[in-house]
Amino acid sequence: MSHSWKKILISPESSIIQALKIIDNEALRVALVVDENQRLAGVVTDGDIRRGILNGLTLDTAVSEIMNTSPITACVNTPKKELIKLMETRSILSIPLVENGAVVGLETLHHLFEQPTYDNPVFIMAGGFGTRLRPLTDNCPKPMLKIGDKPILETLIRSFISAGFNNFYISTHYMPEQIKAHFGDGKELGINITYVHEESPLGTGGALGLLPDCLPKDLPLIMINGDVLTKVDFQRLLAFHEENQADATMCVREYDYQVPYGVINGEGNKITSMVEKPIQRFFVNAGIYVVSPKVIKSVPENHKIDMPTLLEQHMQESDNILMFPIHEYWLDIGRMDDFNRAQADIHTLGLD
Predict the structure, then answer these.
(1) pLDDT tens track for 85-123
(2) CB 3.0-4.6 Å disulfide test: which of 35, 43, 74, 231 passes with 78?
(3) CB-based contacts of 22: which residues, under 8 Å, 6+ apart?
């Protein structure tokens, strides 16, 4: 998603000359016309302006006279491949992204084909014992179990590489030598890998206190459990965190639970309503975070703490801990059923 999309928003009353200046200055070749609630009213391109002028309109005319009032749009969470196909099919160079009717971004064909690079550290938790996957983990750390023809951890790292990340830190504890022997310093993959070792388990948050001082001082860090198989868009996750200037962002998934009985509500001995096997919906932690340097620095060395507890502490200091709902494929490979499902899914995900 283009990071400068907010600069191309104009009102329907704006003049053609104002739209022309935005199109020329912002290099996105389009202006988005929105109402007071940021709902998309139309789109203006250089071609629209030229056609308006040819039809006798002046540069002081309101853009509402020339804008395309039925532009092609897409949901903010539309996968990259679908956006590319939509733009190529419709012969358009950009597409507004909407959520609940409001404009929340702009994607361009150039940006989708361009491979950005990120210096943001990626911190992978790979020290767990994997006790629920025994006997598979008796002689192999869980992140090194193969899904398809590659270890879980390699599939995860390659997903980040595809998204433009190259600076990795891996936290180890259980059988670290197998992980180090497989990946080394990362040069064979074209990346840099630094290991931090937990002498005793410190929890997902405590491992932050082991990171070296040479981390980039002003860049947020992406943190993820090493047993997660996912197609989450890490670029959009990072952009969401930075655009909202969050202290930390937690990825969450919607989890449905159906009560197996009819639920009765009442006042005293009087029944007020009855709901047969209602479904309750919750957001649950997906084990993926973006963490600001402020939060990282708050964790002392060798301090045992889990991420939810750490984030709760920061929530008491500020209201800047956000959640990022994910709809993409996500699987925490913690049990044998999950492991078997991953073996079946990997070939259809495009991750193998």
Answers:
(1) 888 888 888 888 888 888 888 887 776 666 678 999 999
(2) 74
(3) 7, 8, 10, 31
